[in-house]
Input
Amino acid sequence: MKKFYVGVAIALFLTILAVLLVPGVDDFVEQTFQRYLGRAAR
Output
């Protein structure tokens, strides 16, 4: 279970770095979260 949380933390950190450093990634991340949350809301 600890490996899961470490994996989530690493993925979150890499996502934040990508959004800050790579132009255009923020739109992709936003669309991905909108799709995921849209499915979860149904």
In short: Helices lie at 2-21, 25-41. The chain has two helices and no strands.
